[in-house]
Design a protein that fits this description.
It is a single chain. With about 550 residues, the chain is mainly alpha-helical. It has 19 helices and no strands. It is globular, with a radius of gyration of 23 Å. The chain starts with a helix and ends with a helix. This is Cbb3-type cytochrome c oxidase subunit I. It comes from Polaromonas jejuensis. InterPro entries: Cyt_c_oxase-like_su1_dom, Cyt_c_oxase-like_su1_sf, Cyt_C_Oxase_1.
Length: about 550
């Protein structure tokens, strides 16, 4: 029995074991509705107070008045618990800033590489003088810069900031987390350089040579250790659901990356099985739990209201863990793999509707009567958009796994549009919102130009909408043309040309939004722009922080 089958069988057995543990916990009453656990993100008396550090004082006050008109009552927050939060933020500030700064750098690199590769699809003779600028290499540079450089760095920064807050304790071993970040980004830089010169391992999402990937895995290990040590030394009684999602995601990505990069183990047909086991799970067991965990914190925190059902949030976590491990096999429908493998993948892809619907119902209930606050809060706007795109991309992905749909859209640009709806419309937009919330607390400085946040949102949202709609329509028509035996293959190529141009238009808007975002981040970090005193400047004035209930 080859390693791919063993890996899949092991993951399936773990899912079954986890299912029985879940059933046991239900029988023991461990998942009864827990309002105390749902409220752990707030200090005592803080429920009812809106919170978005991206807002200036006047806008924050306007949002609070709008919330109060919607029925939210404001109370005095407990000063001791707020002080714990201040100390937690202080302990994680340096590693968080390092990870977010790296993320911004790789976002620009990946965006420019992605736009270049997009233009090449309808202008193939553009920039062909250098080998590293050919489509195969520049597209792979884009993929790795965004996957590992932008999303992974931003996710790690957010985890290191959120967990001490949620555990109400200082981050233990921050220096080790920073060393881990240095190793991860050294590996990313070396890996992208290797890809540019043509040295890769030849597996999608796993192109970085294993000799370089050792640095990335070692970096993950050095980040995980401080997280686990902080978790063990927590001060809270209840573990909020975001902690479940984020700690599990860290352990999952380390294991996935280790198995995927084992040298000399994955060969032949089973290499493709392992490739898509990793490729889909890096989205579903790394990007997704981190982003869902972020929404479960930032969205209730922003509107000053606990999640409507803590049980639904736990149900979403466990069903995600149960069903996602086998989803990647639907990319191999029609390939030389066992039929039971693809059938299992299809079944589990459809079952993924459960955690998605649970999340959507929970967020809808939490936001009921509060959606109008998105007019005021940049963080809430990004989180709501990301949550909606999670619902859309997940449902689309489940139905794309069906054989009748798969035979049309597989190997087309439609799949590329779907991937970007998840990785950008959902994950990246959530990370943007998290950064806007975190950085005033990390840098002791407010965002200098609030209107740039609005510009960033609309450029990014419009860009991904054009990108997704264009590729979805063009990809479907491409699939229909390829299935028609009476039509030459070139028909499927030429009919997609207008949609590929729309893809570049959408990509251009997204790149512009990234330039606005990173430029604004630099202005904030370098203290450019107007000096505004507000609740975000709490390190130099703790009394102001306590007074505002942050």
């Amino acid at each position: 029995m080859d390693s791919a089958i063993l890996s899949l069988l092991g993951a399936f057995l773990l899912s079954i074991i986890g299912l029985f543990v879940f059933i046991w916990s239900l029988r023991r009453g461990l998942l009864l509705e827990n309002s105390a656990a749902a409220s752990v993100i707030f200090a005592r008396g803080e429920i009812g107070r809106v919170d978005d550090p991206a807002l200036a004082d006047a806008a924050h006050d306007s949002m609070q008045r709008a919330a109060k008109e919607g029925g939210i009552e404001v109370h005095a927050a407990d000063a001791a618990e707020l002080q714990d939060r201040i100390e937690s933020d202080r302990s994680s500030a340096f590693p968080v800033f390092m990870f977010i700064a790296f993320a911004c750098f790789w976002l620009l690199v990946g965006s420019l590489a992605g736009l270049t590769s997009s233009i090449k699809l309808h202008e193939p003779d553009w920039l062909t003088q250098q080998a590293w600028l050919t489509f195969g290499r520049i597209r792979t540079v884009h993929l790795n810069a965004v996957l590992y450089g932008w999303i992974t760095n931003a996710a790690l920064g957010m985890i290191l900031w959120l967990l001490p807050r949620l555990l109400r304790t200082e981050l233990y071993g921050a220096i080790w987390a920073m060393l881990g970040g240095a190793l991860i980004n050294t590996g990313i830089a070396a890996g992208i350089g290797a890809i540019a010169v043509g040295w890769t391992d030849g597996m999608e999402y796993l192109e970085i040579p294993w000799q370089i990937a050792i640095f990335i895995f070692a970096g993950f290990a050095l980040v995980i250790l401080p997280v686990l040590f902080t978790l063990v030394n927590r001060k809270v009684e209840h573990l909020y659901v975001s902690v479940w999602y984020m700690v599990a995601a860290l352990l999952w990505i380390a294991l996935l990356f280790l198995v995927g990069k084992l040298p000399g183990v994955h060969t032949g047909v089973q290499q493709a099985t392992t490739n898509w086991w990793y490729g889909h799970n890096v989205l579903g067991l790394w990007f997704t739990p981190v982003s869902v965990g972020a929404i479960y914190y930032f969205l209730p925190k922003t509107i000053g209201r606990p999640v409507s059902s803590y049980n639904l949030s736990i149900l979403g976590f466990w069903t995600l863990a149960f069903f996602y491990g086998q989803v990647g096999g639907h990319h191999l429908i029609g390939g030389p793999v066992p039929g039971w493998l693809t059938t299992l993948s299809i079944v589990q892809s459809i079952m993924m509707v459960i955690p998605v619907i649970a999340f959507s119902i929970n967020m809808g209930g939490t936001l009921k009567g509060r959606m109008h606050l998105a007019r005021y809060s940049p963080t809430l706007r990004f989180m709501m958009f990301g949550g909606l795109m999670y619902l859309a991309s997940s449902l689309q992905g489940s139905f794309e796994a069906l054989r009748s749909v798969n035979q049309v859209v597989h190997f087309t640009h439609h799949t590329v549009g779907h991937a970007h709806l998840g990785a950008y419309g959902f994950v990246t937009m959530v990370l943007f919102g998290a950064v806007y919330f975190m950085m005033p607390r990390v840098l002791n400085w407010e965002w200098p130009y609030p209107r740039l946040i609005t510009l960033h949102f609309w450029l990014a949202a419009t860009g991904i909408a054009i990108y997704f709609v264009g590729l979805s329509i063009g990809g479907y028509l491409q699939g229909v043309a390829m299935l028609d035996a009476a039509r030459p293959f070139m028909d499927s190529v030429t009919l997609t040309a207008p949609y590929l141009k729309w893809r570049s238009v959408g990509g251009t808007l997204m790149v512009l939004s990234h330039i606005v975002f990173v430029g604004h981040f630099l202005a904030m970090a370098l203290r450019f722009g107007p000096t505004r005193a507000g609740a975000a400047l709490f390190w130099s004035n703790k009394q102001q922080e306590l007074a505002h209930g942050k």
